[in-house]
Structures are given as structure tokens and as C-alpha cells.
Amino acid sequence: MKIQSILIYSFVASATLLGSACRKYVEIEQNDRRTLKTTDDYRYLLNNKGNFETSYLLPLVTSDNIAPEVASTAASVWGGSTQLAYIWSAEFFTGDQQDGGWNNLYKHIYVANEILDGVMDSQNGTPAQKLAVAAEARVHRAFAYYSLANQYAPVYDPTKAESQQGLPLLLTVDLFQNLSRVSLARIYEQIITDLTTAINNLPNYPSFNYHPSKVSAYALMSRVYLTMRNFEEAGRYADLALALDPTIYNLEDFTRDETFPRLIDDKEVLLSKTSAGYMIGPLNPELISLYKEGDLRLKLFIDNEPGTYKGYIYKKPVFNSSGNYYNASYVGLSSPEVLLNRAEVYARQNNAAKLVELLNLLRKKRFSADKYVALTTADVNSDLLQSVIDERRREFVGTDLRWYDMRRLTLDGGYFKTITRTFNGQTYSLNAGSPRLVYPINERVLSFNPEIGQNPR
């Protein structure tokens, strides 16, 4: 029986209950009947941030942005799964522990499937309203499958993708469907299909940044094609997003109080997704060395914490309602990512002039005015791609993107460098060919669904 299957039981129940909760008691329903009837019912599912915003945490831990040696004082405040992920262990979760990242993403897929299964036949909505709801659900589903593929499946290789092991592909609300994995090529095909189907029915920008829109769908398409090594399409979709003129803040505007807009008000965020909790850990000194004098990201995104963590830590302030400095990290889509995706494509096309133009567009808004010095082609000519990789590391500190970049750069020769870590007196290494670049499937999931199969360890 596969009701438990790929989802935590409560997720399956909650998706149904959410529909009834959103009915606002406008009618009486039998206890054993579904209550998703009107187009507004499905819109309420999308409006509930809890259904799609909270995602995963561990890509922030497994990347080389975290220091190669963690003091015992820091490790003692990490959860067990964090410590195991830090050393790329054969298992990240033990006993009855559950993988919140896997669960959250398949919850997103389940709720999206529920919307897509019924919204076009729903009552009291216009065709345009129904198509808009379906379009948002498709973008959320595409984001979830991309995130799963870049944690629990191999690095996408266009020469091997048809034979690479992907994920269980769930496109309906049938809880008894086959959970055997499809190819990685099929997963990416579905991601592209969902996004291309959605785009025409989305507004250019959303009313709130946790709703998908054209600009976020273009941004996600650019990210996906970059991962697929289809650089022409990655550049094309980045251009479509940039044509909508997404906001890039001048960080000097925030230096007086060292505060940023709330996540919901952050105009750089094109699609709001947050980590499943927050990650505080010492940052790699090699990463810190990439920041130059006057780079305000070093001041606003990072702090020096000499106590428990004994080093630099990610601190980009979000100041939630409780005033907590270390809230969940942003792991969604952003304006700077689009710009740097386009810059990377220029680097791969050996177009130094356009590369420098885009890097300067971002850097001018990241440095204090008195310290900013524009790059020239002479500054990047020795290695165009490395100049973009370094800028991505500086910009995306504290997000999931470094882990995804590390994985795809294994196909670019020397741009992936073996990572070595020391923890509790033992040394661990991660090289470009390691199976540990793929996360393990939670044994609790496999106990109910052995047909999924464990990833090579």
C-alpha cells in the first residue's frame, strides 16, 4: 500500500483539509467528501504560503561555502542531519528521522497536482482565472522537480541524461501510482513543459513575490537550461527576464541601518522560496578572500562571529516579526541570478565585452561609491568563466546556488576542485566523480517504497 509513499502522511491529509479550510464555511459538506469546488478554492491553495514557500536546507551545508573545519563548539549546536550532510555521509537521517527537504518538495508537487487536477473544471471562475491558477501551480511544480533533481539525482549530462536515473515523476493526485524512477531526461522534459505551458497565462510581475509570474518563470527557465548546458536557451530566457527590468538594489541604500526589506517586500526576489529552517555555520576563508575592499556584501550579508562559530558566518538580515537576525535563507529566484546567468553565457561564448558590461552593472550596486572600480576586459581575459563563478559565489552566499553550481561545474574540467573537510578528527573529501554529489534517499521513504531505490553511495 503506497498511501504513505513518497509523502509524509500528514501532507496527504493536509492538502485535502486545506481545501475545506479555505471554504470559509460558506456551505456544509459531508465529512468524507472533498470540498474543492470553486476556482477561488484553488486560488486559496496557491495563496497559502505554507503550501509552496518552505523548501529545503542541506544545499547550504554541503557546498564549499562552509568552512573546511568546524569547531566542536559549532558542531555541537548543529542537528545530527546537518553534521552528516557536512561530511557527505552515506546517510543524512537516521532512525525515524525524516528528510524535510524531500518531504516539502513532494508536498509542493502534491498540492500543485491537486490544483491541476481540478481547477479547469471548477465552478464560478472565468477561463482566464482558471488558466492563471493552473499556470502558477505548474511553476511551483517545476521549481520543486528542479530542486529535487539537483539534490537527489545525478548531475545532468546531456550526453547521458536518457539513461541517468531521475526521480519518481508524479503528475496526478493518485496516491497508488508507480513510484519507480523515470530518467533524468524525462524529469527535465517535464520541467520545461510545465514552464512553457505556464508562461502565457502569467502576469509580468506578481502582486506578491511568492506567486509565480512571467519574470520568475523566465528566470527559472534560464536556470534550468544552464544546468542542462543548453547555453543558448539559458541566455535567451535570461534576456526575456531582463527585458522586464527586474530590480537590483544599490546596497549603499541599506548601509546606515544594515537592514533590508522584509522578504515579501524584497523586489530583488522574483519567486520567494525559503530554506527549511536557518543555517548558521562558519564560512570558508577562501570564500571570504573573494570579497574586495568596499564590497558591501561582506558588510551586509556576512558577519564575523568569534564565539561559537569562530569565523565568518552568513547573516543577511531579514528581520522577521520576532526580530530574529538569522531567519530562513532565501533559496528562490532573484534578479541578480538572472543577470549572472546571462553573464555566464557570455563567458562561455568568449564575449568579454558583454561579460564585463553585465558584471559591472551588478558590481556598481554592490560596492560603496568611493571604492568602486569598474572592471575592464583585461581584468577577466585570463579566465572569463572563472570571473563569473567568483561573482556568483560572492552574490549567492547563504543560498542553495553554490551547491548546484558545484555539481554542474564537474562537467567543466578544472572548475570543480576537490573539497576536503575535517570533522571530529577525521578527514573527508568530495571530488568531481564522487557519488556523494547526490543526496541519499531517506531510508524511511525507502521502507515504504523500495522500488525507488537508494542512490549509489
Q: What spatial form do the alpha-carbon principal axes imply?
A: globular
CATH architecture: Alpha Horseshoe
| Total number of beta strands | 8
- Which stretches are poorly predicted, pLDDT < 50 over at least 5 residues? 1-33, 318-326
Share in β-strands? 5-15%
What do we call the CATH topology?
Serine Threonine Protein Phosphatase 5, Tetratricopeptide repeat
Number of domains: 1
Question: Which structural class should the secondary elements be placed in?
Answer: mainly alpha
CATH class placement: Mainly Alpha
Sequence of secondary-structure elements: HHHHHHHEEHHHEHHEEEHHHHHEEH
N-to-C span: 28 Å
Report the C-alpha radius of gyration, rounded.
22 Å
**Mean pLDDT, as a whole number?**
89
Order of strands, widest sheet: 1-2
Q: What is the helix fraction of residues, given as a range?
A: 40-55%
Helix count, DSSP H or I runs of 4 or more residues: 18
Strand count, sense and barrel status of the largest sheet are: 2 strands, antiparallel
Give a description of the structure.
The protein has 457 residues and is mainly α. It has a single domain, classed as Serine Threonine Protein Phosphatase 5, Tetratricopeptide repeat (Alpha Horseshoe). Helix content is 42%, strand content 7%. It has 18 helices and eight strands. The protein has helices spanning 9-21, 39-47, 59-62, 72-75, 80-86, 100-118, 127-152, 184-199, 214-227, 231-242, 285-288, 296-300, 335-348, 352-363, 377-380, 384-395, 401-409, 443-448; strands at 165-168, 181-183, 269-271, 302-305, 311-314, 333-334, 419-423, 426-430. The strands form four sheets. The protein has a two-stranded antiparallel sheet with strand order 1-2. A two-stranded antiparallel sheet has the order 3-6. Strands 4-5 form a two-stranded antiparallel sheet. A hairpin with a 2-residue loop joins β7 (419-423) and β8 (426-430). α8 (184-199) runs antiparallel to α9 (214-227). The radius of gyration is 22 Å and the shape is globular. The chain starts with 8 loop residues before the first helix and ends in a 9-residue tail after the last helix. Residues 1-33 and 318-326 have low confidence and may be disordered.
